[in-house]
Design goal:
single chain, Ribosomal Protein S5, domain 2, 3 helices, 4 strands
């Protein structure tokens, strides 16, 4: 699980990232990112009730994405805020290897 230091602690930072950040969209998930001055990366995962009705499933999707981010983040050493917005419940049944590849491709596209 991703350490609490690297997560958002309030909605204010997420709102700021939504307003001022850039977006990379795929059919299943999008990434909103923005540079920050804190010196470390913060991450949030948003899974709407429209994607999956049960909290258990939404939390499982969220935990899987946080774990993929934890594994992929050390490759990218830039202080940024990242907000992952999930659009498809396919991430629940997707293999973890494919999920990591998807997260890695989003990170690579954000570094350009």
């Amino acid at each position: 699980m991703l350490s609490k230091k690297y997560r958002f602690h309030s909605r204010g930072g997420v709102k700021y990232t939504y307003r001022h950040g850039k977006t990379i969209r795929t059919p299943k998930i999008s990434l909103v990112f923005n540079d920050n001055s804190r010196g470390f990366t913060r991450t949030a995962v948003v899974v709407s009730k429209k994607v999956e009705k049960t909290a258990v499933s939404r939390n499982r999707i969220r935990r899987r994405i946080y774990e993929a981010v934890r594994l992929e983040l050390p490759k990218y050493h830039k202080a940024r805020d990242y907000v992952f917005v999930v659009y498809s419940k396919d991430l629940l049944s997707m293999s973890f290897k494919k999920l990591c590849e998807l997260i890695d491709s989003l990170f690579k596209r954000s570094m350009i």
